Amino acid sequence: MAGSILGAAVKRLEDPRFVRGQGTYIPNQRVDGALFLVPVRSQIAHGTIVSIEGSHAAGMPGVVGVYTAADLDLPVAAPGASGVPDAFGRPPLALDTVRFVGEIVAVVVAETERQAVDAAGMVAVDIDPLPAVTDPVAALEAGAPILFPEAGTNRCLADGDPPGSALFDGCEVRVTTAIVNQRVAAVPLETNSALAVPDGDRLHLSVGSQNVFSHRNNISRATGFDRDRLHAMVPDMGGGFGAKFYVYPEQVVTAKLAITLGRPVRWHETRRDNLVAMTQGRSQRIEVELGADRDGRVQAMRMHITQDVGAYPLFGAYLPVWTRLMATGAYAIERLAVAWQSVVTNTTPIHAYRGAGRPEATHAIERSMDVLAAHLGLDPVELRRRNFLDPGAFPHTTPSGAEYDSGDFAKALDAALDLAGYHDLRAEQQRRRDAGDPVRLGIGVACYVEITAPDDRKEWAGVEVGDDGCATVRVGTSGHGQGHETAFAQLLSGLTGIDMENIRLLQADTDVIARGSGTGGSRSLQIGGTAVLEAGKLVLAKASRIVADRFEAAPDDIVVLPDQRLGVAGVPDASLTWAEVAAIAADLPASDGLAAELIHDQGHATFPFGTHLSVVEVDTMTGTVRLLRHIAVDDCGTVVNPLLVAGQVHGGFAQGAGQALWEQVLYDEDGNPLTATLVSYLIPTAATLPAVERGSTVTPTPYNALGAKGIGEAATIGSTPAVHNAVIDALSDMGITHIDMPLTGYRVWQALRTAEQTHLDRLGGDDVER
Prior knowledge:
alpha+beta; Aldehyde Oxidoreductase, domain 3; Aldehyde Oxidoreductase, domain 4; 18 helices; globular
């Protein structure tokens, strides 16, 4: 590309308005006369609704109404995963039964938010409690409470078969590891919101969504409002992490009441509500068995997955499919058997969360590789080298059916080891052990490969240049912090020479975007970006024909020149500005101006990969874990903007380390949430995380013109097992082989004391005094 700036670390165009407080979020959108909606939520995890008494609340100042399921007559939403029986469907407001704390039983609408909050507190809800179950394994035991009696079981979806007897034939060594990916909360910076504004025969809906077309279509079906008259859009949005793909009951009810009342209605979620009502992630238990020869070459793998889906089966019921697909990771494992089951419990529903099934797969294989290495007395790095797929083996189809496009896994590992100074770290670790230092050093490695653009591989984009010389990009992706405004402008500027500041992005608005699949699965740049690039090429070709015609040249002789001009190669005076070309195009007969649109179909998923290495200190007296360093070498194919990649890696590491060390959603035995505030639900802060030391390798994909793969979820996938492995590595000489996440100080201290007592028991000694 002439004058291309692709690959340059261009600063984000979005940031100045955000740092100046000029972003526009749904709560900032001012609409005169808007009513406020506040949900009334169940405080019981499982029970039968006896009565809902809202008459007193309805008579309070400013209250427009109190509404229950009977008042709104909204249809039950079908389960969010194919194959789940309809009996597991979710009503927008609870009908006869509540199934988790936080489920909506009624809503209050009032003139002000304060009035609505006060009235919601006066709605009397009488619920006859039923036994609750919060553990998916316990939910399958005989006599467990059944959440959906008409279904007759808590198992909502299952697949796979037990391994045949030949699976581990020839394996001289077998190791089994039980791994828990605990339940975590998405905690986007901005909680959920919706604002519905009637306008004649139309309804304008501002909604927090990662796919505005999905929200529009689902809310249209639920409310019965004509889809073509429902305008949905997403203003600035503060993060999603997968949780904002889901169409929430509150959003449906907000739209329904705006239609019914003929007035604007808005709903803004509190943080406390967010931590019990927004969908959550992970909550998967995996038993992994590896079979290998005595040299450590893994020949077979067995997995059994139990997925907790919460009270209603949404996309979470389907997560084991992606875990199975990526089960063998970066390794040449020939035989695989996976069985899985998804189970309902009296907890907040599980949905996609950054990585959605793939972090669980990587964590399972990478922890298991460390367990196998310890069993064989091998360095975990050496074990991985012996099992990597060969760089010449691509494209490669894994036993699960994943079709890897390209890769060089050993190259990424070598780069990470060099950055870390691996041999020096091992020497320091041994020095501390020999000296009896109570602060142990741990080094953890995780080699990952993940799938991006795993399902919807098409995207729409349009490019238009106006007679002011500025370009407008329209695209069906939906940026909410990733830097799309910068990335797409950089792509088009590199192609056309139009200054990035003269390129604007329109997205996530059903009135101005023809179609779109939103942002998730790290699909946006490789598919949306390629769509923008291809549409831009059509515009450039049209412009080149106009310039060629003006100067009696061939279109192939037209080149992009500095100062936002197009001209004849080698003829300095034969050029036009983009503004001039656009003006000519607008006057051509039957012209649609200097514009083009298309749907790009990538046709394939792509498979980024890399190595993450964590260095930790563990105080064996207190159990305290301190993250010292984190090295990330990621390969996402061709990089358009390394600054944007760095942002995704740093953010992904924060969430991955957070899961490894701190984050966990907890319930008591009755289903009451114990982590409903950010005081009790711990998330990482800048003070607790080191800066990521980054490296990269570049292995382009053959499946798009950019050669780009996704990066948005890679660091979350690679960092969690790296941190986990580092903590276990620090304690491996003290009899510690595994500790479940999160590796809190107390949990590590408990494991150390247990290992100490086990050692004393073997020696026949007495317990130490403590």
